[in-house]
Amino acid sequence: MSWLDDVPREEIDWGPTIDEAACREGCQVCFDFCQNGVYAQVDGKVKVAKRTACIVGCSHCASLCESSAIAFPSLEELRAAHPRP
Q1: For 33-61, how does the pLDDT look when each residue is reduced to its tens digit (9 = 90+)?
Q2: Which pTM was predicted?
Q3: Contact at 8 Å (CB) between 36 and 54?
Q4: Number of structural domains in the chain
Q5: Which of 5, 47, 72, 84 could join 59 via S-S bond, C-beta 3.0 to 4.6 A?
Q6: What CATH number does the domain containing 56 carry?
């Protein structure tokens, strides 16, 4: 997302949230998929450990989640938070 190139990653509100009620215990598809350390296993459940490790614009883990438990901010929300100069 080129308009965000000069914005420090820590200032970009992009990353997954997990609906714990919808998340299937033991599934771990998101944990297995993500190679950036965004997810961690805590007490047998997958949790978001490093939201800022998520690549801005990537939401592939959400498309792999069979229970639709993973959500990301919309691109409209991202654009509103970081308008182009």
Answers
A1: 999 999 999 988 999 999 999 999 999 99
A2: 0.89
A3: yes
A4: 1
A5: 72
A6: 3.30.70.20
